[in-house]
Amino acid sequence: MKREKDTWSYVNIWYLIIPLAYVTFLFVTPIFKMIYMSFFEFQGVGKALGAFTWHNYTRFLMDPYYWKVLGLTVGLSFLSAVICVVMGYPVAYHLCRVNAKAKHILTALSILPLWVPITVRLFGLMSLVETGTLLAVEMGLVYCGLPYMIMILTGPIGNVNRSVEEASYVCGAGFWTTFFRITFPLTIPGLVSGFMLVFALNTAAFVVPVILGNGKIITMTTLIQQQATYIYDWGFAAAISVIFLIVSMIISNSGKLYDLWQARKTARSEKLLRAAMRGEGEDV
């Protein structure tokens, strides 16, 4: 038994070490190298870095053009996430309210776009919209993010106990009253998670603005690609990447503010309930 336990402990350690080494080598190390490169003058491919400088950051922060690109990227991603919520919630709600056979069919249809390579999907979309416009890029972002939103929302909506909704109907509430007073509030945490996921995916979208933007719509990802591959200013490209990374992390983690607000609200409600129960006990 002791030998078997030691063997499994050894195996379990490797189960942890191998993924960590993989993530460190392919994710953590390149990020630190990118951050390091952003503080130095880039002398050319294969050459040593130049002197330490803040110019890469001040160049971005002092130029209104780059702020417009950042604002456009965040705005397109935010709007696409909102549209995905509006379009995906009714679909996810219907998926959770149909029988099992219909649910399997509708679920397959919902994730069907993910079975096709994104480039094929976008080239097909090019025949329906005029490329090089904000509308085309926005439609592409929604098209790519909607299946993820639907799949995420089916979990929270499906976890809502039907007996709670039926109790609301018994008490005289209609469908819309039950939905806005019971169903929707219970699914808000899942909705926030889906919104943040789609927003994060769309901020990092590269193929969509390249194909549907047709070189006329510049986002942060295409700007980084231009600086790195065409202008060969890797230091400035690294600085843009660091700034974009910080902004994306701040916005993507802003959903935790809702969690904190919800936790405080729950704690306050529990405190009031305990106070009311103590008051009733003293009256008795």
Low-confidence stretches: none
The level of helicity is: over 70%
Category from helices, strands and their pairing: mainly alpha
**What is the H/E string?**
HHHHHHHHHHHH
Strand content: under 5%
Number of H- or I-type helical stretches: 12
3D architecture notes:
The structure is a single chain. This protein is mainly alpha-helical. The chain has a single domain (67-269), classed as MetI-like (MetI-like fold), CATH 1.10.3720.10. Helix content is 79%, strand content 0%. It has helices spanning 2-37, 55-61, 64-95, 100-110, 118-125, 134-158, 162-170, 175-203, 207-213, 220-230, 234-252, 255-283. Helix 5 (118-125) packs parallel to helix 9 and helix 7 (162-170) runs antiparallel to helix 8. The longest helix has 36 residues, at 2-37. It is globular, with a radius of gyration of 25 Å.
Which descriptors would you attach to this protein?
MetI-like fold; 0% strand; 284 residues; 12 helices; 79% helix; mainly alpha
Short account of what is shown:
The protein is mainly α and 284 residues long.
Question: How are the secondary structure elements laid out?
Answer:
Layout: H1 2-37, H2 55-61, H3 64-95, H4 100-110, H5 118-125, H6 134-158, H7 162-170, H8 175-203, H9 207-213, H10 220-230, H11 234-252, H12 255-283
